[in-house]
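for the recovery benchmark. tokens below, seq after
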């Protein structure tokens, strides 16, 4: 009699042959077959980058901060990871700002060190006298030496 472990272990099938697409849609009825969809897109002349750029142009930009779409890494990718994270949190408006920390119950108030009631990325970038970037938005696009020092101060906040 097989042991309890052997009884509960599902059988495993190994297949070492070439990857063949399913021969019928009944094998994957709930899914659209990728190779067919890709062939249709290719035949239609679909270009992902052009589609992405058109979508980007059609949406209303966020009130936070906007970088144009880029297939590669955004400017500042050469920074140490902690600074790279801080700059991207500021760019996206999602980070350890007072408003979010208070919302999550990790801080008692959402206030900023400058006295503003609600510390957000938008507040830090555009209004905060204590934490605003020294070179305006340039420090979010491509941080120079002053911008790097500013980001270093914000690592615990952003």
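predicted aa per position
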């Amino acid at each position: 009699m097989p042991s309890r472990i052997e009884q509960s272990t599902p059988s495993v099938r190994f297949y070492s042959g070439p990857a063949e697409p399913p021969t019928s849609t009944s094998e994957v009825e709930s899914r659209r077959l990728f190779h067919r969809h890709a062939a249709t897109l290719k035949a239609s002349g679909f270009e992902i980058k052009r589609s992405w750029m058109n979508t980007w142009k059609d949406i209303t930009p966020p009130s936070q901060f906007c970088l144009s779409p880029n297939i590669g890494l955004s400017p500042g990718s050469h920074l140490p990871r902690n600074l790279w994270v801080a700059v991207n949190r500021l760019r996206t408006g999602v980070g350890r700002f007072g408003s979010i920390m208070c919302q999550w119950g990790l801080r008692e108030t959402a206030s900023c060190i400058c006295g503003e009631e609600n510390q957000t990325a938008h507040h830090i970038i555009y209004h905060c006298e204590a934490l605003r970037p020294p070179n305006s938005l340039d420090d979010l696009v491509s941080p120079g030496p002053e911008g790097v020092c500013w980001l270093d101060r914000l690592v615990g906040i952003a």
